[in-house]
Amino acid sequence: MINSHVVQISSYINPITKFGKIGKIHSIFTHSINIQIGYHLVNIGCFENYLSCFGMNIPENILQSIIHSVGKNEIVKFSNDYLYFYTKDGIKKISLVDSNIVDLKINAFSQFPKAELKKVLKILERKKLDQRIGLPNNSLFKTFTEEMTTFKNLNIEQVVTWLLGRGKGLTPSGDDILCGYIFILLLVGKATNYLSNFIEQIISNLSLTTDVSKAYLICATQGYVNSKVYQLYESLKNHDLKNIDRELNSILNIGHTSGNDLSYGIELGILASLNTPESMKGANNEK
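Structure tokens predicted for DUF2877 domain-containing protein (287 residues):
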């Protein structure tokens, strides 16, 4: 559970100065701000039940005070104990002294959770996500998703470059699908060479998508996920699926179509992990 009254910081951006000490306002929204530091983004939000993989949550009243005072490209300074926003109303300071670091890094399982993944897959398939995502479910899309799940006639570069940046919004649907897909393949630790090539193609072609999506994809390739996906990871890791429907519905509720897109990527990743040829599997044992 994310506590909206305490500063929460994703483990990905800890320490907060890891990317540098001077940033600028990249984008401003109703409930969050993105700060650019070099090539990286840090998201400052005020969400009760959600923490971005590259973000922090602060109390809503403090964030709203900043949102109403800052403009795009204005300076933000980072220190280990404070954030300083240089606004039209003067310097606004956020204390990080009593902040909580939230672990959002996933690790591959030592054994393949076949039964658990099949249960998740069954639930996701019932939701008919291919009809709810932000991309048209046309013949070309079906061809690429079949390649991603069966590995037949697979051209990794073609699949990745087709999905990257495809769709509307700050996080195009194709990118959200890729994030969900990578999450599962990293989780199960299979198709190691395939996954390495897949990630390499994503990193090499990030110019095809938005700055915000780049940040999510970079996190995904390094094994960092948002707090809702991390809860799913914890349940799978602990073989505890009693709340799995609620957790999946929570992911589905992210954004306009982002939750559907991300969940469909998870579905594709599960299918791929279950269909991985023996010659492509990693070192993990399978039960």
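The mean pLDDT is 93.
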